[in-house]
Amino acid sequence: MKKQWWHDKICYQIYPKSFCDTTGSGIGDINGITEHLDYLRNLGVDIIWLSPCYPSPMADQGYDISDYRNIHPDFGTLEDFDRLVAEAKKRDMGIIMDLVVNHCSDEHPYFKEAMAHPDGKYGEYFYIEEGVDGKEPNNWRSYFGGSAWEKIPGTKNKYYLHMFHKKQPDINWENPAVREEIYDMVNFWFDRGVVGFRIDAIINIKKPHPLRGCNYPADREDGMASCAKMTEDAVGIGDFLQELKDRCFAPHQAFTVGEVCGQKEEDTIAYVGEDGYFSSMFDFEINSEEAKDGFEWMNKHFITPDMYRRAMERTQKRMEPIGFISTVLENHDLPRISSRILREADRTDTAKKLLCVLYLYQKGIPFIYQGQELGMDNTWFDDVDMMQDVSSQDEYRVCREAGLSHEEAMQVVNRFSRANTRTPFQWDDSVNGGFTTGTPWLPVNPNYKNINAAEEVANPDSVYHFYQKAIALRKDPRFAETFVYGVFGLVSQEYDNVIVYERADEKQRLVIACNMQQAEVTLDMEVGEVLLSNYGEAHPTSGRLTLRGFEAVVFRA
Ligand code: GLC
User: Which atom of ligand 1 is nearest to the CA of 331?
Assistant: First the structure.
């Protein structure tokens, strides 16, 4: 595969609203990011992905954009943004923005115009259809619950489509004028110096036509079918994505990572192969394992080492001949990883360091989500409204409708809520974890006294320093080529709760061994030159490989 500038990079996702507030508003801002660039550079970060920071009514926390060419006043100004890009560049880091173009906000001027004149020019910027027999045009359920269609006020029988919240109307990509506007907007950000984009919910931009009457068998008692079903029938998304690449990404040699889920298997190469639409896409395989009995939160499973190994192997094997996946443990849509994969008693710093080793050396481009490098944990909300998350509200409703009590529903929603990763970043042990001098928009996790950046930067044994060391090893010139391009292989599957894989090329074999349990285990395998262990002290470098409880070791075989 042709080498690209992004292949050996480490990425870091920032959720601007919760990163650092420099004004006392209770909301994080762009200047708060600029202030902490050295913190990120010292960690080893090369590329920073900003979740949306555009003007937005925040119905879906910024994934509902009302102005694509500006910065939300709560976050700062375009000048602040330019300064962030310039300061990042000085430190040899690049900024990528979140490209949310399946839908916009219902407060976008074009949508307002479309609602005022559904038959006018801007009506064609969205999907507007006549209802059928006094009901919605079809039976799709939106990702956030309820019908994917909303009646247009003042009309007899017209509806608009929203795959997500009703305040997120879908944009009509079939309309060439719409596509031109999008390409222009994307290039506007390239002109401001961004090095690429993370591309939101992109699989949804192509719909089957006609939409009206496109019904699927009901998958719940509400008589509706998940709108995700339509992606199986939508044909031709590649034409849109190729055009987007040709007009925007390719001329800028951009790094782009797609939030692609549910694509047809045979299309993966078109998405992220050597000449793919995108540079990479996220690895969500473990999410499918977790949701093997349904994506409703109440049906999700706890992730066992066995599930993780299976998912990892599937992804790595599938991607080997194709290209680079982006590996993740956390993002703004998931709870903290410790709650998904570690039993409560096992949530120690040692185990959190093991998780770092487990994913960092797989083939791909690692993404760290803010606070993951500190080992931040889930929190607890007494009330679902406090979470300020449309998805949590919907899942609470689903639980209650299935007969769960309020307490039971709160257990489920607290475990999986997206608000868990959206709580403010814990900078130090001062009030509000040093995130704000005002009232934080979302409560700070009370454990900030123990888990915070200041303490961890000062403590050489912290999770933070371990991430730093692990990243430095990945970039060490003696091993970098192997970690970036070496072939992935599972070394052993015989031991319960133990995951061992290797990265190999003609030069060397690097083995990554993780014991995901309290019990010590001795494997039928020789250890070699140990490059990293999550136990502070040195690991023996000869004899059979023994791993202590939750020990992770990287060695050269
Ligand atoms: C993506 C985002 C998520 C958002 C949704 C709609 O899945 O990651 O946060 O709610 O798209 O934009």
Answer: 8
